[in-house]
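Curious: why these numbers?
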Amino acid sequence: MGAHLARRYLGEAETEPDPLQLPTFPAELGLPDRPPRVMVATAQQLAEGRVPLEQRDFCAHHLLRLLRCQRDAFPVPWRCHHLRHAWDACQHHDYVMRMKEFERERRLLQRQKRIRQREVAAAASE
């Protein structure tokens, strides 16, 4: 953890994407068949379900079901185990997708830098 920070501050900062910013390259560049991600739960459903703002992500629809189950089956917490597993699996999948997107952005920045270096070398040799 933190390897991107070490590369950003100690290595080549221009080829290391900022993890707090949105991707700069088009989504279909590098992964042409990837479907766009969509939110399943609406903002109104999340507000009515009292989902905290930091948990309103692409897995919020699983969290809504889990919170409803925990409320309905209060004294018996193991009844909602399958919903907890579905939410955890979705969170893990979301994390993996974000890391893949970060790595794609990093590799595209490196590719862009290599192309620029080739163009400069070709212009200098002419």
